[in-house]
Amino acid sequence: MAARHGGAFALVALCLLELALRGAGAGDGEPLVPAMFVFGDSTVDVGNNNFLPGCSADCRANYARYGVDYPSHAPTGRFSNGYNLADHIARFLGFAESPPAYGSLPPEGIIEQMRSGINFASGGSGLQDVTGKALCGQVHSMSDQLDMFASVVQMMGNCSSDLVSRSLVFISVGSNDLFEYVGGNATSCPNRNDTAFLQGLVAAYRSYLQELYAAGARKFSIVSPSLVGCCPSQRSAGWLKDDLDGYYCFGTANRLSRQLYRMLLSMLQDLSAGLAGMNFSICDSAAMADSVFNSTGSSSNAMNVVDTGCCGGAGILGPAKCDRSATLCPDRAAYLFWDGFHPTETASAVAALALFADSGRYVHPINITRLAAL
Ligand SMILES: *[C@@H]1O[C@H](CO)[C@@H](O)[C@H](O)[C@H]1NC(C)=O
Ligand SMILES: *[C@@H]1O[C@H](CO)[C@@H](O)[C@H](O)[C@H]1NC(C)=O
Ligand SMILES: *[C@@H]1O[C@H](CO)[C@@H](O)[C@H](O)[C@H]1NC(C)=O
Ligand SMILES: *[C@@H]1O[C@H](CO)[C@@H](O)[C@H](O)[C@H]1NC(C)=O
Ligand SMILES: *[C@@H]1O[C@H](CO)[C@@H](O)[C@H](O)[C@H]1NC(C)=O
Ligand SMILES: *[C@@H]1O[C@H](CO)[C@@H](O)[C@H](O)[C@H]1NC(C)=O
């Protein structure tokens, strides 16, 4: 299948990246928020799974060729060739470094690290406690991640309240729940009720946000799952199930992503109306992906391979492993996907830019720049 073109979007976005970085003054002076706390899955994990003894190799990224473009050129546990979404957002906010993995911190260093942020995210996890357990053996579920956060906040005592309320809570989760749902038996069941399934996810999300609010958090940046049916691994799944949409992606999976976004937005509007001082910014990643997959006829050479993973070449012909023996694409920046599931460093940068600086196209009701300034 021919690669579709996402070039125009990527190119415009990357030019804006420069402006955004200058505008935000990354590197010079104070970050825009005192700290950043990260929760979610492999889109934002910076190595927590390396510290989970029961977590299988399928849910770790601590081997080559992960990290090939990271500053150290070594695998770190990030599911990317280089930086991931959390890293880019941290840089845009003006932090010198992305908040470290909670698992990497010595117990005596945790409270000090809270002052600038900690990353609790765990690859393979989802909104449901059970998500990731079968595939990975052990992950930090969202409930676990929030428990860890709440216990540190409690240890800090009342010194934490001002810090946590001014800081950014950054959450990217939900894709794995969708992957497991569409990959499992549910979608072959004629009586399945997708809306009821999604309502369960949204109810879980709501309760996590309430817990974070109770721990003092006020500024929430939420990344909804992207068009998960367009991950290279899911294209072959959709093909096998004879369920392909106009992008040659797994149709049911993409429909669920779009529906979940609308439900999350409405939940957030409702929740924030009832919780004094809560503000949020949600990114419609499905709409953002739509614009990439649907951008017509750009012949620019920026990020124009959207159907195949750079590492190992997962795609319509099937999944492929990204490991030491995998072949690498020659031009990583031309690829939307790094492996069968995860975006490249470049694609994450484009998404991070939208989160940070978009004015109403994909990010609602405000972008992270405005959220941080409140
Ligand atoms: C923390 O608690 C102490 C003792 O209860 C109180 O004097 C102080 O004002 C509190 N500080 C903050 C920031 O709430
Ligand atoms: C799917 O159904 C089969 C047969 O009923 C069962 O053995 C298998 O465990 C199920 N898989 C999942 C993921 O639920
Ligand atoms: C699916 O579940 C929703 C919400 O639980 C319910 O309102 C709807 O009637 C159900 N649809 C069917 C076809 O059962
Ligand atoms: C691309 O966008 C157009 C206009 O919004 C829409 O009509 C079309 O269905 C989209 N293509 C696909 C494959 O979804
Ligand atoms: C922030 O949240 C408050 C209520 O919690 C709301 O009144 C206000 O409009 C929000 N600000 C923005 C910029 O969305
Ligand atoms: C953020 O959004 C506001 C309006 O919602 C817009 O004026 C601003 O340009 C956007 N970007 C940045 C970097 O602030």
Report on the architecture of this protein.
The chain has 374 residues and is α/β, with parallel strands linked by helices. The chain is 40% helix and 9% strand. It contains 13 helices and 8 strands. It has helices at residues 7-24, 85-93, 110-114, 133-136, 142-156, 160-166, 175-183, 194-214, 232-240, 251-274, 285-293, 345-357, 368-373, and strands at 36-40, 117-119, 168-172, 219-223, 279-283, 305-309, 335-337, 363-364. The structure holds 2-acetamido-2-deoxy-beta-D-glucopyranose (6 copies). One 2-acetamido-2-deoxy-beta-D-glucopyranose binds next to helix 1 and helix 13.
Question: What is the helix content?
Answer: 25-40%
Shape: globular
Give helix and strand order, one letter per element, not per position.
HEHHEHHHEHHEHHEHEEHEH
Total strand count, please? 8
Provide the residue-averaged pLDDT: 90
Q: Using only CA atoms, what is the Rg?
A: 19 Å
Ligand inventory reads: 2-acetamido-2-deoxy-beta-D-glucopyranose
Spans of at least 5 consecutive residues whose pLDDT stays below 50 are 1-12
Largest sheet: 6 strands, mixed
Structural class: alpha/beta
Q: How much of the sequence is in beta strands?
A: 5-15%
Number of contiguous helices: 13
Strand order of the largest sheet: 2-1-3-4-5-8
Brief write-up:
This protein has helices at residues 7-24, 85-93, 110-114, 133-136, 142-156, 160-166, 175-183, 194-214, 232-240, 251-274, 285-293, 345-357, 368-373; strands at 36-40, 117-119, 168-172, 219-223, 279-283, 305-309, 335-337, 363-364. The chain is of the alpha/beta class.
